[in-house]
Structure formats: structure tokens, C-alpha cells
Amino acid sequence: MKKTIAIAAVVTAMFHAVNVNAADHTFSVGYAQTDIKGLNDDLTGLALKYRYEPGRLGLLVGLTGTTLNESTTATIVNNQVQINTFDRTYGSIHIGPTYRFNDVMSGYATLGYATYKAERKSGSTVTSGFEDSSFAAGAGIELNLTQSIALNGGVEYSEHLFDSKAMTYTVGLGYRF
Questions:
Q1: Do 25 and 51 form a contact (C-beta atoms < 8 A)?
Q2: Residue 115: how many CB atoms within 10 A of its CB?
Q3: Distance (Å, rounded) from C-alpha 153 to C-alpha 3?
Q4: CATH class of this structure's domain 23-176
Q5: Percentage of the chain with pLDDT > 70?
């Protein structure tokens, strides 16, 4: 009888330990759009976020990548058509704390590293361009729609060469586990 009670106590404790750790992690994938001051078109791409939240305070890590490829002109060189393009790429990695306001909503603030690259190409040859890296800051919210589904939205800001101020907006759907 004592053995049965001990086994039942261990199984119950293990069950509660698993429940306590349930839904501490959220992985989300979403759409990202970068608005760079002075450009007519926005860069579009992907945002990935991982959130670990064991209690009211947690940690968020995010990756963002956006691009814009513009074909400007076509020229004929040695009886072959070469397309002249202007490619822009933005990427960032950031990390920061999260705070759970209630069962449904949490907020986050991040700091990180961002890079912005612009290249003019004639065919596959790069003719001009620049690349700049800088500090980035961001903030956002995450809403837990159900026990396992989360929706998040955020914004990040960075400044680059030639007064290129980049504002990236993200919206994503996540899975909590």
C-alpha cells in the first residue's frame, strides 16, 4: 500500500511539473515590411521570433530579413541582353525582455544589430553599392489567442548611411508549446 501511494505521489508530481512548464515557448513566423526614408517602394520579407516566458518576465529573440529587387533598364552587350538591377537588402537580429500583462497579452522591447545593403548590378556584375550596419531598437506585443496560438506585431528602427532611416513593421502567427 505504501508503495502504491509513493508511486501515485511521484506520478502526480511529474504531471504537475509538466503542466507548470507548459506553453513557456512560442515560435512565430510572419510578414515583415521595411520602410526606408527616401524610397518609394518598401522592402518585404520574413520575420522569425522565439519567446521563452517561464513567468511574468521572459526573453525574446528575433530575426528579420527584407529585400527589394528593382529592374531598371536593359542594355545589349556583345549581342546579349543585360538587365540592370538595383537590389536592397535589410536584415536584423535582436534580443530583449518580455513582460506578461495578463493571460492574453505580453509586451517586449528589443535591442540588436541591423544591416542595410544596396547594390547596382549590370547583369551579374556589381557596379556600385554600399553596406552599413547599425544599432537597432524595437518593441511589440504578443496576444495569446488560444492556449497554443499566438499573434504578434512589432516595429523596429535603425539608422544607416545617407540618412537612410529604416522602420520595419512585423506581424506574425505563432505556436506556443
A1: yes
A2: 18
A3: 52
A4: mainly beta
A5: 85
